[in-house]
């Protein structure tokens, strides 16, 4: 006798419950928060000390994408907001949206106005917003209130003149201010820059072990045979096979030799700490490598532009700033969407990869 239409079977209920829990960061990370050595405990202690001891702090959370940085941060902030509901304000920025200094300060001013029920001026200048933020920090400090600035994709704020970071940190030098700046980034090379060691007080490192385990379990549960109602060895084998698929590497294997050269040139520009680059600067690097190695793999600029556009379509590269959509593709800044390790692995597994490319990767 078949089950009623639209009614979940016990197996489906179990499967949905498990997937819901595995998708909930609080369920995953809360049991790990009891340890005093956990990042959660350290983070909560640093932030709460700013609240209870009326001091300033700056923290940088580092780790690969999917390692739980934001999940642990949100868990800690959620607990602190419950513990101190009247004395904490959280201001959130994202480097992908607010890397422009004027835009960032305006967004901080907007959120502060909303939080404290003040009138926000859309036409205020950079200096006006900067002075307003300093005044708000002073007023909140005198009222024993802490402002927490969360800067996701922190590396985008750390480029160029860094006016936003210095404005915030200068404002925190006031005796009366009471604030915490929390940067979140997946770019570990930030630590190689001495300036950030001066700017940030504390570094917390995350690894991707938990994220990989959760994804593996979620895939295994999704593969469960609902008629049987139990997880089998085959479910785990299927999940493992799905995890081991690397779409980016497959895309690299389908690239042309010219497209590989462009990818390697972009990687070389990043190693040179040229954070902003576009097709024209990639072409300059491409010409330079050709002059150095005198390769036979040299193509005209219009051919290179087509290859560049193909990399954008494959999502191995993306535009870094989506506000400049009216510009031609060759002038818009771009960024690599693959890591140096993935690119190196892709080159090694590429049939008939020119030896020059591997040499360029190692230099």
The strands making up the biggest β-sheet line up spatially as: 2-3-4-1-5
Taking all Cα atoms into account, the compactness measure Rg is: 25 Å
Q: Average pLDDT, to the nearest integer?
A: 82
Secondary structure: helix percent: 40-55%
Number of helices: 18
Q: Give the tally of β-strands.
A: 7
Low-pLDDT sequence parts = none
Compute the separation of the termini in Å. 69 Å
Overall 3D geometry?
globular
Give structural notes.
54% of the residues lie in helices and 10% in strands. The protein contains 18 helices and 7 strands. A 5-stranded parallel β-sheet has the order 2-3-4-1-5, sandwiched between helices. The chain has a two-stranded antiparallel ribbon with strand order 6-7. The chain starts with 9 loop residues before the first helix and ends with a helix.
Brief write-up:
By secondary structure, the protein is α/β, with parallel strands linked by helices. Helix content is 54%, strand content 10%.
